[in-house]
Design goal:
The complex is a heterodimer of chains A (113) and B (114). Chain A is built from no helices and ten strands. With 113 residues, chain A is mostly beta strands. In chain A, strands 2, 4, 5, 8, 9 and 10 form a six-stranded mixed β-sheet that branches. A four-stranded antiparallel β-sheet of chain A has the order 1-3-7-6, with no helix packed on it. The radius of gyration of chain A is 13 Å and the shape is globular. Chain A starts with a strand and ends with a strand. The mean pLDDT of chain A is 92. With 114 residues, chain B is mainly beta. In chain B, strand 4 and strand 5 form a beta hairpin. In chain B, the strands form two sheets. In chain B, strands 2, 4, 5, 9, 10 and 11 form a six-stranded mixed β-sheet that branches. Classes of the chains: A mainly beta (113), B mainly beta (114). At the A-B interface, strand 4, strand 5 and strand 8 of A face strand 4, strand 5, strand 9 and strand 10 of B.
């Protein structure tokens, strides 16, 4: 079946603009994660959705960042008033309840110019 | 919440030598420990995992060990090859409100020198 899909794969935006990044998890996966990975760096946790529970937003770096997950499926990460330091690869991952392997999307490479 | 520490951050080995990456976790309730490999420009992918009722698991040239008492787990790669060069992430996972939440380490960049 289809894996985790992210769009767009690349995004170049001007400083100060808003951007929306999309993640389509594997069908039936109830857990969904967003991570940020700067060039050559590790995985920075941003937000975690688990079923219908309130999301864990503890990793969001500022109030310019927000995320939604509608209908327990597709998720959108929104970055308002983008800054150059927001440039990174944004990775989404999903996992099922009992099968704990996390499957990653290919990422969205965001460049703020 | 869970805290996962990973060492070293970078590791260079000669082809054919062994590589060891170590992680510690803080939450004794964690019960699942996956390892992911991320090749340059690609997404992280699971390479091996271990559950808390097992002390060691091996798959060809890679093995993982788990010490629950010390809250340590390690990845061992033997007879390293250039294609092993990648970033490796450890993770710890536990039940949280009926769901599994995964916490990743910072990653180790492994370079295998031919």
């Amino acid at each position: 079946g289809a894996g985790v899909s992210q769009s767009p794969s690349n995004k170049v935006t001007e400083k100060g603009k808003d951007v929306e990044l999309r993640c389509d998890p594997i069908s039936g996966h109830t857990a969904l994660y967003w991570y940020r990975q700067s060039l050559g760096q590790g995985l920075e946790f941003l937000i975690y959705f688990q079923g219908n529970s309130a999301p864990d937003k503890s990793g969001l770096p500022s109030d310019r960042f927000s995320a939604e997950r509608t209908g327990g499926s597709v998720s959108t990460l929104t970055i308002q008033r983008t800054q150059q330091e927001d440039s990174a690869v944004y990775l989404c991952a999903s996992s099922a309840i009992m099968n704990t392997e996390a499957f990653f999307g290919q990422g969205t490479r965001l460049t703020v110019v | 919440g869970e805290n996962v520490e990973q060492h070293p951050s970078t590791l260079s080995v000669q082809e054919g030598d062994s590589a060891v990456i170590k992680c510690t976790y803080s939450d004794s309730a964690s019960n699942y420990f996956p390892w992911y490999k991320q090749e340059l420009g690609k997404r992280p992918q699971l390479i091996i995992d271990i559950r808390s009722n097992v002390g060691e698991k091996k798959d060809q040239r890679i093995a993982v060990t788990l010490n629950k008492t010390a809250k340590h787990f390690s990845l061992h790669i033997t007879e390293t090859q250039p294609e092993d060069s990648a970033v490796y992430f450890c993770a710890a996972s536990k039940n949280s409100g009926g769901y599994q939440k995964v916490t990743f380490g910072i990653g180790t960049k492994l370079q295998v020198i031919p």
